[in-house]
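[scheduler] slot 2 assigned
[scheduler] job type: sequence-to-structure, two independent chains
[scheduler] chain ordering preserved from manifest
[runner] begin chain α
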Amino acid sequence: MQDIEAFLNEAGELLGPRGLTRDPELMEPWLTDWRGRFKGAALAMASPASSQEVASLVKLCARHKIAIVPQGGNSGMCGGATPDKTGEAILLSLRRMNAIRSLDTQSRQAVCEAGVILQTLHEAAEAENLRFPLTLGGKGSATIGGLISTNAGGTQVLRHGSMRAQVLGLEAVLADGSIFDSLVPLKKDNRGFDLKQVLIGSEGTLGIVTAATLRLLPALSDRKVIWAGVPSLSAARTLLLHCENVAGEALEGFEVLQQTTLNDVLAHVPGTRKPLAGDHAWHALIEVVADANRTGGLGTLAEDMLTSAAEKGLLEDAVISANETQAEAFWLLRDEIAPAEKAKGPAVQHDISVPVEKMPDFVDAAIPLMEESWPGTEAVAFGHLGDGNVHFHVIAPPGVDALAWQEGDGKKISGQVYELVTKWGGSISAEHGIGQLKRDELGRLGDPVSLSIMRSVKQALDPVGLLNPGKLVPLA
């Protein structure tokens, strides 16, 4: 039988007053996920200050058989960092571990602890005339450890790949309290499995990420952000291919959203303005960039790209950012989609992907299907067209009880969306992870062989099941 008081006393001695709290008011903000769909309880919240403290705490938890729920900025979308309602687990916050241990301008690498906030890394790299090539709307709260654990994407995946592509080395604490240290990056290393890749995207179910070596790139010397109106998502896809042909490696971002979504953001965020004079069924947000190695004017490239697109009838209207302030204003409209939708009312959100070339046809089929199947709902799609990942959301009818709708019709809608995505050869999770939100759907729709391998890896690395139980890995 567990001796909870003995465990908590030992944990308190190990971590000190700053490192462990049982105060309900201090814990409360961290026991509910960002979207407010999951609320849990915990024995206490641990906030270790070092990897060694994490390792010692995990050994203590293993001895007392206390489950551990790791958490970064608590900005995840699938409830992956929220404990269950039993209150039998300890919430492990990595936020105190927020040091950038090193930033090497010669190798263009940074070693960051798990609690480093993404925006902090951006600013540190910028100070050295470098940049970290991954960004997203929640950059002010998302942490490096959380981004690694969910293999986050963002708006620059088109050119630079997801978080997995940015991780050169990794440090993590395993379920027995041992420290996996693979921070030193090697270009070539054939000593068996690349174990850091197993931990990336595992959502804290196989190990607790405590630090990482990340790649940096030269700072940008210029960028141009373009807002274009197009008649359809299929037209946006054709415009994307045109931009790729003209701009090549200079094309860094290509986002899409509907007019209704833009209207919601404009209504929600004070001081925002329509980028274009008229309305358009779909909008494309395009970014082309130049680093210090590029020769020639980026403005000329952007103008030539748009002129040739217009001549081919690929867009209805477009504007190029005149300065950095306008460029940021364009991106703000994209970054504020999630908060604007949250303010509008309850919705079920689906972070999905299908083969890139099929995305327009999928969205064109899925939107009317959902709205016809569930009268009163509104289906919207937005996101990263260039990598086949869009966020497909179904907004509840006005006036419904949020929780009751999400637990009733909302779950049925999500099941239908995921079945449709699977039939189209896609994935029910493109960049947000599985968490507890999609675990059962993964078990229902996932490939049996892949699921069997996942369960075997989980059993091998966490045989007692103490690391983030109930998340990611479906029950057999």
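[runner] end chain α
[runner] begin chain β
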Amino acid sequence: MDRIIGVNSNCYHGYKIEDALKGIKDAGFKYVELTATKGWTEHVFPNQSFERLSQVKDMMKEMGLIPFSMSGHANLMDPLRVKDFVMNMKLARFFGCDYIVSSIGEAHLEDKAHASNEEVAKAVKNFVPYLIENDMKLVLELHGDHATGKVLKEIVDLVDSDRVLINYDTANVIFFADVNMEEDLDIAMDKIGYLHLKDKAGGKKEWNFPALGKGYVDFPMIFKKLKDAKNDSPFSIEIEFTKDGPKDLDEINKAVKDSYDYLKSQGFII
């Protein structure tokens, strides 16, 4: 089964995009999820000059790297962030990305009550015309109040667009939620269109996301379920280390290479 397998440049949070691209290429990967998250990791961002963005685009071309998606996280429930997210879509199209990734954000009403799935879906649905205009898919990441495939499937079903699918984050479902991942995958499978492959170590609520194969996420189970369902959604590797972060660039590069080796050991062609 053909499958895109790439690396989220956010693995290199705190380092330059040049460092990220070199590390990803040297590890053996060909695909990149570019990070454009306001105030966090702005490896590329709409306010950068056209000259700089073109330089990054040319750099990837020279390295043989393909930017297939963009991590463009914004609070989709905040009307003031609509413009930001639309600009991220335009940026993603500039780089030729087919996917844009975002969590939903703080889904609260003005009185701080939690918004219903119907209200969330209505807000997300407003982005569909922009997705069509830029010819891409929005994949909603498991995160916070929406950290299970079950709840995101309910929202995606209400949006009712083939442009909006689930980004199943294999560690966030553990960190944020208390569910059986096997059952949750079965519930959401037909709406999963993307996966953040992220491992988990330490306690359930401990910020500890090492290289693939270094934690306790049951990846063989996940891979089997995807295969049985004939789901060939893209993989994007995400490594976030501990709350202290990586000690240096070499540690990130090693974690990315270890993740490459782990996926090869599982039979994937990268």
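[runner] end chain β
[qc] chain β: Residues 249-265 form the longest helix (17 residues).
[scheduler] slot 2 released
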